[in-house]
UniProtKB/TrEMBL annotation:
Protein name as annotated: Class I SAM-dependent methyltransferase
Keyword Methyltransferase: yes
EC number: 2.1.1.-
Gene3D superfamilies: Vaccinia Virus protein VP39 (3.40.50.150)
Biological source species: Nocardia tengchongensis
This protein's UniProt keywords: Methyltransferase, S-adenosyl-L-methionine, Transferase
Pfam family for this entry, one: Methyltransf_3
Coiled-coil portions: none
Enzyme type, top EC level: transferase
GO molecular-function term, one example from the UniProt record: methyltransferase activity
An example Gene Ontology biological process: methylation
Keyword flag Repeat: no
Length: 258
């Protein structure tokens, strides 16, 4: 085994040894407040992806994003391992209209957008205007600006974003086929309940939730388990936290039964 491969193995198995992980932990309060770590990694990721991927090719853009997160600074994308779970769920849902909560810098929006059928749409809701700007740039670079729209806001902002989705983006009774939750973990359940109250889902709609174990969304997990076979049917995927193989995570794919 070469020295380079040893370093790569240690980086993958022992993520805490990476400075970018330590810096992320230090910047946790900043991230919670602003949506960015505070060391410029989000802007650096944008520049890296633009310089190291082929315009108009989503797979090339995603690969560059993954390389940056593995070799430079860890990002809170769904990542390549859990991204395969997301890909498969989108394929099963075959959505005409999809919603993402927590767009960050556009990685998962690109994963979802590239799988959409012609004429289908994804709306990605991101609370950070700075992240939304990065996401729009990279979504356009991937050639998906027609399929994917980024909206700055939150579902829990007192109805402002919900009204905007309804008025400007066609969200209405039974219109929503797919939801990806990857934002504030405490907001998973209340935001899903808001969506349910709005009547946007229909029997067969899918909701996919990332990071249910780490950082954890215990209320959401409890709700889905208690609703099993009643209003939801859920598959739980044991997987790993982004860009390493040590810390276990959990992804939930839940089908709405009505």
């Amino acid at each position: 085994m070469t020295a380079k491969s040893v370093v790569a193995t240690l980086r993958d198995r022992l993520p805490f040894l990476r400075w970018s992980v330590i810096r992320f932990a230090v910047g946790g309060p900043t991230f919670a407040r602003t949506g960015q770590v505070g060391d410029g990694r989000e802007e650096a990721a944008r520049e890296y992806v633009l310089a190291n991927s082929i315009a108009g090719e989503p797979l090339s853009v995603l690969a560059a994003y993954d390389r940056f997160a593995r070799t430079r600074s860890v990002l809170v994308n769904v990542g390549d391992e859990k991204g395969l779970i997301l890909d498969a769920a989108v394929s099963r849902a075959a959505p005409s209209l999809a919603l993402e909560l927590g767009g960050y810098c556009g990685y998962s929006a690109i994963r979802i957008g590239r799988a959409l059928a012609p004429g289908a749409r994804l709306v990605s809701v991101e609370f950070s205007a700075d992240n939304a700007g990065i996401a729009r740039t990279l979504i356009a670079h991937a050639g998906l600006a027609e399929q994917v729209t980024v909206v700055v806001g939150t579902i829990g902002d007192g109805g402002v974003t919900v009204k905007r989705l309804a008025d400007e983006h066609g969200f209405g009774t039974g219109a929503l086929d797919f939801v990806f939750l990857d934002h504030d973990k405490k907001a998973y359940l209340p935001d899903l309940e808001t969506i349910l109250d709005a009547g946007w889902l229909h029997p067969g709609s899918l909701a996919v939730a990332d990071n249910v174990r780490i950082p954890g969304a215990p209320d959401y997990l409890r709700y889905m388990r208690e609703s099993e076979g009643k209003s939801w049917r859920t598959v739980e995927y044991d997987t790993h936290v982004e860009y390493q193989s040590l810390l276990k995570d959990l992804v939930l794919e839940s089908e709405y039964l009505g």
